[in-house]
Amino acid sequence: MPETRNHIRFILNGEDITLNRVRPDETLLDFLRLRRGLVGTKEGCAEGDCGACTVLAGRLEGERVTYRGLNACIAFTASLDGAHVVTVEHLRGADGGLHPVQRALVQHHGSQCGFCTPGFVMTLAGLRLEGETADDARIEKALQGNLCRCTGYESIVRAARAALADPEPDTLAEEAQAIAARLRALQDGARVEMGEGPDRLVIPAGVDDLAAMLEAEPEARIVAGATDVGLWVTKAFRAIGPAVFIGHLRELKRAEVAEGKLRIGAGVSYTEAQAALAPHLPALAELIDRIGGEQIRNGGTVGGNIANGSPIGDMTPGLIALDATLTLRKGASRRTIPLENFFIAYGRQDRQPGEFVEWVDVPLPEPGALFALHKISKRRDEDITAVLGAFHVQFDGTGRVAAARIAYGGMAGTPKRAAAVEAALQGRSWTMETVEDALPAFERDFSPLTDMRASTAYRMLVAKNLLRRTFLESSGTKAPLRVRRHEAA
Amino acid sequence: MNTHTPNLHAERIQGGVHESRPHDSAHKHVAGTAVYIDDMLEPRGTLHGALGLATVAHGRILSLDLGAVQKHPGVVDVLTIEDIPGEKDISPTARHDEPILAEKGVLFHGQPLFLVVAETRDAARRAARLAKADYEERPALLDIAGLDPENDRFVAPPLTLKRGDVAAALESAPHRLSGQMRIGGQDHFYLEGQIAFAIPGEDGDVLVHSSTQHPSEVQHMVAHALGVPSHAVTVEVRRMGGGFGGKETQGNQFAVLAAVAAKRLNRPVKIRLDRDDDMTATGKRHDFLVSYDVGFDADGVIGGVDLLYAARCGYSSDLSGPVTDRALFHCDNSYFYPAVRARSAPFFTNTVSNTAFRGFGGPQGMVGCERIIEEIAFACQLDPLDVRKRNFYGGSPRDLTPYHQNVEDSVILRLVEELEASSDYRRRRRTTRAFNANSPVIKRGLALTPVKFGISFTATHYNQAGALVHVYTDGSVHLNHGGTEMGQGLYLKVAQVVAEEFQIDLTQVKITPTTTGKVPNTSATAASSGADLNGMAAKEAARAIKGRLADFAAERYAVPIEQVVFLPNRVRVGNQEIAFSDLVKQAYMARVPLSATGFYKTPKIHWDRDKGQGKPFYYFAYGAACSEVSIDTLTGEYMVERADILHDVGRSLNPALDLGQVEGGFVQGMGWLTTEELVWDEAGRLRTHAPSTYKIPLASDRPKIFNVKLADWSENQEPAIHRSKAVGEPPFMLAISVLHALSDAVASVADHKICPRLDAPATPERILWAVERLRAEARGAGGTGLAGGAHDHMPAVETAGRSDAGPPGLTTLE
Predict the structure, then answer these.
(1) Which of A:261-280 have CB within 8 Å of B?
(2) A434: burial class by Cβ within 10 Å (0-12, 13-18, 19+)?
(3) What is the 3-state secondary structure (H, E, C) of B724-765?
């Protein structure tokens, strides 16, 4: 058993914080505003969409501190153990002078009502720490999780360009080494335990500790990035305790290739997964740009996206199309199942009490195979999927379809394979004619719902058209096939 | 901040009018130190309120069991309508149709039933969900499709505008067509939700911090509900985190409830709505169903139009009367109708009561109008821009609006022609067609649309404003006026006006929060009127003090009054120059009063609603936008490739702020017409009540190329404040160009022969159905302009808000 602590510790702006009374469902935003009077951080939606509550969370990665934007409204205070939390109040220099991002926003008229502004400031301050000159595509990606209703964004983007080009060092860069040392001092490898019953929370010392804890307390709620669980609290008032926080576990954050497979730890965030996927599965890496805003991608994890079983979880159709397997662990024992078998029905997954998702293994497509992903939503960025199609097609030597694995999100109660469509393609030459012949099979595979995102008929037509698009993109046509904001990287 | 030493030799003051200056709170915005109501320090004992909402759209409350609510830990009190000591209604137009909380009847899903007050906001919110209500449900009227303006219920009297013999004009026109267009509503999505914070005072007094565009109305509502005189109630607002019309009347309810609870419990009470409750329980932009019948000639020149603007108003009148009136005032956009009849139909529905939203019905009026232009262009096979130009208002007799006001200040042709050239419209018209010829899936579209927007409240008595100016003995100035700050920079503009009037640097003018205690009986900051009205009132106040200073200086230094000249930060009196602050000190010692009120009322305007005639608008603001889009004909996805805007703000008071209004208004309008879709289900529940489901534009939705210019040659023909023009609302409607560019792209799939009749919002789904329909019709009918029943292929959807009944077939009489 590791040592235990009965309190959490983190750095808030410049101050060392020790808290021995934290409910598992206390949000970071409530902690900041209600307990600390740090009211620069705003609540706009309490669901991680508008970004008015954006703060930076710095964590040690090797020797350095890496800062990432988070939605304080749905992040739980306890999950910040061992981190450096930075709010807008901290950005001004010791002399009270504005941070380059703040200065640029003033100069370029990037605020009107000002309510969203602290969130934009934090997002851009985080972007600036990446240290490279960001182009407009990167700026827009960084801003996907920040809503402004006044400016139309043009002035904010102008300010972002100016701030990123401004060579002046800022507060966070200047104090980076000192903060790193302080964060190192907080790393004691202890398990944190606090509270009783629904107030109980555990921050395990490592994965083995997590496994042991869950075996002993199988009813505990596993919380990683809280990008979903956070809303259970802020919108539905669901009790989440006893809760076990796993977002910090390095062992769950590994992403590595071995034997033709990419293994992604359950705790790998979307942001981290994107970096790991880019060299091997560029289509899947690119899709991640379309999941939430950057703050959500920094918190949300691949394991969480799978484990909560949503029919519109965007990672799963692609992973199913690649025939990924899921490894679940209980205590010291593990079992590995095909990912698609994990999803039993809407809201029901094949996870036993005390079990947790440890990693997913993704076989890389063999050379010559086609792997494509298409997400359709009402708004292109930071929107929930209406239809998502994932296509993995292997060919034999003569251009015929040797195997097709096609999976969709948004078309059924779970992420689901289009088995009839796959069968209709099987063994046929990869032509538009084959594709057209296969389209009626969609009616056998799916009967999607109508909801506020899309109608049944739209979902069905688009599902078919995504197969058409997939074919056209593989056909070598020079005509544009997608509306694009920026040329693909 | 206050260590500014005025330059006594300056040629120009710093921060006068026509100068670009950052928003007065910009520094505080970015530093996180700008205080919004929820950021204020809470006095000892502050309590928090949350609302319990109805879960049926229409019905009678059989029982409301609040036992569990009361017992929830931390709960202090629960209030229902019975607990309102005074007036129980908050209809802003005195129609008594808006109970503060539901009485016996529930009229929309989400209607507030009770207020729970607790020690913490969390406790109040949790407790609010514990009520048990039993209802006798009744059929709910959710949509206006199929309602009859002759027989169905209105929430306010309809308006008819008439000129000429419409029936004859339609019948004698060489061509005629009719159709219908559905235009969706819009949630304001101000980033700061509704909030009110009431602090009880002695006797009957209460101070209410309210995020409102209309503090005087809040004051009156609170006084009525408490049964106290207005003098007992002070309403203050330093800033709102966005308003857009959503805080013109919608804050009243929460301010009243907070005040009633605060007085009842003698403790401060704050009510801050959760986003979902805010979107569910407060009104939005009206959705409309516009029916049109138009006669025109082969050149596309309109002979006559007959229009019906039906609006879904919700369960109460709120501002629906004036909103639907303003829709009619803009049914002409920039075009002359030789004969016209335009009727409004403000229908009652069992939905949330729709309210003011930037443009106030004007955008819907204009969108309907532009559909007609588009129909004509397709019917005549003309470029829509040519149809537009042929129908623009011109000299007499082609200058008369449907409400019998002459358009005397039109700059629309000049704006449009300049934009046509600067945006390279004609060449791009050819290049988009060429692009489309080689691109089977992705299609481009282009459109250039004008805006003419009438400036003044159509309720004439609203066009008044007051201000209060103090000059202190150090020469610094305290400024207060009735306008509110919601991000538009009104405070700064008015301060610039005062600085200019006194000829002192802007830093010498202190902007102070709007409060009913300093300037009474104010109008809402709405109708784009903030700077026009309050700028003039503040100027008058400053002028009064300046006049006294001049009189004093003339007398003291024994020079003729003409020899007293206010120079930057100083006053020349005869041959000597005296620092402004020194002159002020001397005036004080000589017992000259250094405080004044100012008042302004807009001249020239009048409006006879019964006759539908008058001059409701002091002047018009104009603009034009050219947008280019690309659409994906497999999925309906789209992108705004480029937008070019030329907008008329007269002589801008602050070009930087005005550009911000134009850019922001355009993108907000784009959201309304594209991805912002409100969806109600069959039970009348709003399903898009949070940003996860309701999609306002992101940075990555703004035009890829965005060229925005103010028409620097323009000057208001009327002596409005420093010859500037109002800017809050007009740019919103520039976004109509995006809708028409999308439509143009859709039309390309049928060789521009069939009008797509694209409804709004043009979500990817609507785009795709329009593409499918046009392709089918082009295959079926050979694609001739006026042929083909324009039935919408959008499938019937069970949700009420999306029951997109297709428009009736268009007819041609040749």
Answers:
(1) none
(2) middle
(3) ECCCCCHHHHHHHHHHHHHHHHHHHHHCCCCCCCCCECCCHH
Rounded CA separation B627/B670 (Å): 11
pLDDT of residue A309: 87
- pLDDT in the model for residue B807: 32
The complex's ipTM works out to: 0.97
Q: Mean pLDDT in chain A?
A: 96
Q: DSSP H helical segments within B590-635, as ranges?
A: none
Residues of B in contact with A312 (CB under 8 A): none
- Given a cut of 60, whether residue B810 has pLDDT beyond it is no
pTM of the entire predicted model: 0.96
Q: Contacts of residue B487 in chain A, CB cutoff 8 Å?
A: 111-115, 150
B274 to chain A: nearest residue by CA? A45
Whether B217 is catalytic is: no
A47–B692 CB contact, under 8 Å: yes
- When pLDDT is averaged across residues B283-301 and rounded to a whole number, the result is 98
Specify the pLDDT at position A79.
97
Tokens 């999308």, residue located: B742
Q: Quick one: pLDDT at residue B748?
A: 98
Torsion of CA B772, B778, B781, B783, to 10 degrees: 130
Half-sphere exposure of A202 (CA within 13 A, CB side): 26
Buried b (16+ CB within 10 A) or exposed e, B505-535: bbbbbebbbbbbebbbebbbbbbbbbbbbbb
Q: Which residues of B touch A479 (CB under 8 A)?
A: 438-442
The one catalytic residue among B236, B248, B729, B777: B729
Name every chain B residue with its beta carbon within 8 A of the beta carbon of A52.
Answer: 191
* Long-range CB contacts for residues A400-404, cutoff 8 Å, separation at least 24: A400/A427, A400/A428, A400/A429, A400/A430, A401/A425, A401/A426, A401/A427, A401/A428, A401/A429, A401/A430, A401/A434, A402/A427
| Inter-chain CB proximity B188 and A147 less than 8 Å | no
Residue found under tokens 């705790």: A267
Rounded Cα distance, B47 and B454, in Å: 44
Backbone angles phi, psi at B545, to 5 degrees: -70, -40
- Alpha carbon separation from B591 to A264, B478, B586, B628, B694 (Å, rounded): 81, 19, 9, 64, 60
Nearest CA in chain B to A45: B275
* B22/A139 touch (CB, cutoff 8 Å), yes or no: no
Query: How high is the pLDDT of residue B58?
Result: 98
Residue B522: pLDDT band by 50, 70, 90 thresholds?
very high
All residues of chain A having their beta carbon less than 8 Å from the beta carbon of residue B679 are 452
What pLDDT does residue B3 have?
62
Whether residue B71 is predicted with pLDDT greater than 50 in this model: the reply is yes
Decide if pLDDT at A44 tops 50: yes
Specify burial of residue B737 (Cβ count, 10 A radius: 0-12, 13-18, 19+).
buried
Residue ranges of alpha helices (H) inside B179-313 are 215-226, 252-265, 275-281
Give residues 92 to 131 of A whose Cβ lies within 8 Å of B.
92, 98, 101-103, 105-107, 109-118, 121
- Residues, chain A: 489
Look at residue B811 in the predicted model and tell me its pLDDT: 29
Whether B32 and A98 lie within 8 Å, measured CB to CB:
no
Query: Which positions ≥6 away from A440 have C-beta within 8 Å?
Result: none
Which of residues 477 through 536 in chain B touch A, CB cutoff 8 A? 486-489
CA neighbor of A336 nearest in space, from A347, A325, A323: A325
Two tokens, residue B9: 């030799």
Within 10 Å of residue A188's Cβ, how many Cβ atoms? 12
pLDDT band per the 50, 70, 90 thresholds, residue A1: confident
Interchain contact B26–A (C-beta under 8 A): yes
Q: Please tell me the distance from the alpha carbon of residue A408 to that of residue A372, in angstroms, as a whole number.
A: 12
- For residue B807, whether the previous peptide bond is cis, meaning omega lies within 30 degrees of 0, is no
- C-alpha of A155 from chain center: 28
